[in-house]
Amino acid sequence: MADISINFAGIKSPNPYWLASAPPTNTGYQVQRAFEAGWGGAVWKTLCEPVLNVTSRFGAHHFNGQRVAGFNNIELVSDRPIEENLKEIYETKKRFPDRAIIASLMVEPQRDKFHEIVKRVQDVGVDGFELNLGCPHGMSERGMGSAVGQHPDLVEKSTLYAKEVAEVPVITKLTPNITDITATAKAAERGGADAVSMINTINSLMGVDLDTWNTTPNVNGMGAHGGYSGPAVKPIALNMIGECARQPEFNIPISGIGGISTWQDTVEFMLMGSGNVQVCTAAMHHGFSIIDDLTEGLSNYLDDKGVASVSELVGKSVEKYTDWSELDLNHRMVARINNDICINCNKCHIACEDTAHQCIDMLVDGNGKEYLEVREDDCVGCNLCAIVCPVEGAIDMIDLEPTEPPMSWNQRESALQVLNSK
Amino acid sequence: MGNLLHNLLTDEDLEKNFAESRPSYNAQGAFDEANRCLYCYDAPCIKACPTGIDIPGFIKKIASGNLEGSAKAIMEENPIGASCGRVCPTEVLCEGACVLNDSTSPIMIGDLQRYATDWSIRNEQVMFKAGKRNGKRIAIIGGGPAGLSAARELGRMGYEVTIFEAKNEAGGLDTHGIVPFRLPKDISLWEVEQVENLGVEIRTNTEVGKDVSATDLVSSYDAIILTAGMSKVPMLNIGGEDLKGVYDAIDLVEEVKNEKYPTEFVGKRVAIIGAGNTAVDGATTSVRLGADNVKILYRRTEAEMSAYDFEYEFAKQDNVEFRWLITPKRIIGDSDGYVKQLECVRMELKETEFDGRLQPVEIEGSEFMMDLDIIIKAIGQTRHHQLIDEFGLEHHNGVVKVDNETYLTSHPKVYAAGDVIFEKGIGEAMAVTAAQEGKETAYAIHQQLNESNESEAQV
């Protein structure tokens, strides 16, 4: 059995799954239930001066019958007194000493405020801090959350203030609501962060009700932007993590967050550079028991791959992520249809015909049986047919034997420059 | 079935027994099923539908919540689409062609069609408008699937259409001849109403050849379409057929369709002669009327029976017994003139010179008696010979001959479609086929009348 325990920036937990700072980690009752179910750690819902919340608070994007492809919330940080939270953190840690409890903090970017809260919280015994510099709604209007997280200098300062007094690791949580997340990630590192976590939620409006024309969610008929999470944000999170992980001058661990719902997502996030993962929306959709398959599936995967420890996955795909200008222009790939698996829905044909490169023919064989065939000379290997195909294995994307040596755009440009300068 | 062990069925029992048996989708069920549809391109289900309904299109509209558009897409191609959603042998048509048969399980197209059209019925949708009157008059004889479909299309194209309907209500077999627990009568009557909404006049209780003559129709209409379907179940031509307790399956179904439930079936032993879909209807109706034991007797075997697989399955679930290779010889009555026994003989299948098909041949000396109370005849239907002769149409054993493309008969003004042109062994006598033929006849008439207009204009 593979070892799925981790040591993330000095914080140990029996598996890489932490509940993200969010509604599921609002109380000791909830976090203890999660630990009973098997979660490796929990980032407590952000401690702050207690806020007032509104109703309603959540919205979801359902797609073609699939519930919660995306999720949106306008709930703020903890609305319970810090003292109460600290008492429950203490009790929970006492009951589950092997699990990681990370306190999420949010204060204005001032030294004394950071010092005060860090000292106060670490007195009850937490395994680490996560600085919430990413909350995109409500708190940002008060000069906190993403209002801080969007300014590299404020990220650096906030991290520095926390680090000045923290005796346990400090993770700086980053907002995706920024053009280049590597800028704030590097700022966190400059501020002395032991790690970063990303991504917080993305600015979003979930929808508009077709009958009332109110926004979803809305509070007494009025709406405001919320934070987007769930499966739909996974690709955005994965890119941001990959972009940070591949920066040569960025060298601290990343806690991956953003739409993780399955053990497969976890493997992808870790390969792309995450030292562990945090989960929220999937738990909100299905409850804490999803941890069972998350850990077992991961463990089985590692065994199948002959990987002894989950930590060995971390960053293994980072070197495969680069700039477009480094991609091989001479590589050729084509689609091939397996007619014994194909069910003849013709979705590949029409997708290619209407919207790609018109290279999948609908043909009839000698026995009058319909079949589909790719004209490989015209195929640009775009993947569209394989993407729309509803049957696993019916379309393979095949690498063709290279006819020319690899050449990237950058190599081509420099070769041209050499030629032109002659 | 409610209350079979008792001697009497209450009104509630009967209402329950004859209510539509297959549950309809609720909104969530329809939405989930609709979302399973792949939305194939050049979809095989469309090609497998005799009326060519844009099936992926109407299903997509269920998924999007556009039920109005969904029902319209169905009814556009099939004027009896609400009935067909219930009675089509979908497993050999659209659902049989669904590509998901090759991966998981086919989309329940019939049930989704029913869901969409039911919505339309509940919401009293008016989907189609009559075309601007073009001054041409068309007479349609018989308001069943073929006649209604032709009338609907002609009405939309501006023709003044009159349907002559022998019965008191139009709809043909859908209204009168398919058991209510498979197709409630009001569904078919809604389809009739849709056609009437286009200004089509339906003269019910009007029999051509009796109440109005063929000659009159020929002289007063620009074209006539014969869509009279088929007639009664033929005689068995065995002794005792006039005994009390001998029924015609078609008549029996018509009675229960009109909520007139015979009381004499309760606790009785019933045999149905024949093994087509009407025989199954007779059998399942008997069960629902409280019969104690119901058997289907067929002179061939399971392999040759003409009932659809789902009908066969339906009957078996109703505990109907199937007895193969048996032919009735004689019905024996009691002193009061009621059926008491049926003398049968066992058959075997033998190759004969007649055609390639195995023929049932009596096994000599294998006669036996079966104690019975009721016998239902369901051995096919006779043809409207008299009506055909009124117009002097060429026919083959009562099957009217038509041009394959135009549906024109041997009479230059008379067209025919539906069961009147259905020849055994060629295609299927399905409501959906009749509907398509009705549509095609309408287009053929439109073309012909326009062509003759043009040639007149040239003169």
TrEMBL record, chain A:
The keyword Iron applies. One of its GO terms (molecular function) is dihydroorotate dehydrogenase (fumarate) activity. SUPFAM superfamilies: 4Fe-4S ferredoxins (SSF54862), FMN-linked oxidoreductases (SSF51395). Keywords: Flavoprotein, FMN, Iron, Iron-sulfur, Metal-binding, Oxidoreductase. CDD domains: DHPD_FMN. Pathway: Pyrimidine metabolism; UMP biosynthesis via de novo pathway. Residues 333-362, 370-400 form the 4Fe-4S ferredoxin-type domain. InterPro entries: 4Fe4S_Fe-S-bd, 4Fe4S_Fe_S_CS, Aldolase_TIM, Dihydroorotate_DH_cat. GO terms for cellular component: cytoplasm. PROSITE patterns: 4FE4S_FER_1, 4FE4S_FER_2. It catalyses: 5,6-dihydrothymine + NAD(+) = thymine + NADH + H(+); (S)-dihydroorotate + fumarate = orotate + succinate; 5,6-dihydrouracil + NAD(+) = uracil + NADH + H(+). Its EC number is 1.3.1.1, 1.3.98.1. Heterotetramer of 2 PreA and 2 PreT subunits. Homodimer. Belongs to the dihydropyrimidine dehydrogenase family. Belongs to the dihydroorotate dehydrogenase family. Type 1 subfamily. Involved in pyrimidine base degradation. Catalyzes physiologically the reduction of uracil to 5,6-dihydrouracil (DHU) by using NADH as a specific cosubstrate. It also catalyzes the reverse reaction and the reduction of thymine to 5,6-dihydrothymine (DHT). This is Dihydrothymine dehydrogenase. It comes from Lentibacillus kapialis. The lineage of its organism: Bacteria, Bacillati, Bacillota, Bacilli, Bacillales.
Automatic annotation (TrEMBL), chain B:
Residues 27-58 form the 4Fe-4S ferredoxin-type domain. Pfam families: Fer4_20, Pyr_redox_2. InterPro entries: 4Fe4S_Fe-S-bd, DPD_II, FAD/NAD-bd_sf, FAD/NAD-binding_dom, Helical_ferredxn. It comes from the Bacteria. One of its GO terms (molecular function) is iron-sulfur cluster binding. PANTHER family: GLUTAMATE SYNTHASE [NADPH] SMALL CHAIN, GLUTAMATE SYNTHASE [NADPH] SMALL CHAIN-RELATED. This is Oxidoreductase. It comes from Lentibacillus kapialis. The lineage of its organism: Bacteria, Bacillati, Bacillota, Bacilli, Bacillales.
